[in-house]
Amino acid sequence: MAGSTGPAAGANASPDANAVYSLGHNQAESARLSRQADELAADSSALIDRAGLRPGQSAIDLGCGPRGVLELLADRVGPGGRVVGADADPLHAAMAKEFAAARGLSGVDVIATDLLRSMRAQILELGLASEAELDDMDAAVRAHFDDPRTVVLPHLFFLTSGRKPRMG
Question: How far is the C-alpha of 29 from the C-alpha of 62, rounded, in Å?
């Protein structure tokens, strides 16, 4: 029941999906993610180049962790472009903000968020998906992550690109 408190209120509730990160929330994991960004920089750069990102465009690094590919994206879009880093872990989002500020990356914003739901308006505005498609995608992703057989290995995600043709 909404607004309930006490031990029984959360006894059968699933953990907040944004609070669950299989590799932990600690300084060692944050450091590993930063090292990973360095180690994968050449591969990430090549994938970003394949996407054809150009000066003045916008890009998003979903699940950016403490730094992700924010700097690589900012280099491609230049001062006239925009980069958004998004991570469900508020600590990693804060670290990514500090990283962007320390590197002097202009046009870079970092947010801690429930990614798909928070980007809904922008996705609709850009015509990347319909309301029904977003609803279906959101339900499918949540069902997948709720499945106890699902294991998330963030370092295996790679950048893909594509465009949905405009209808009409």
Answer: 18
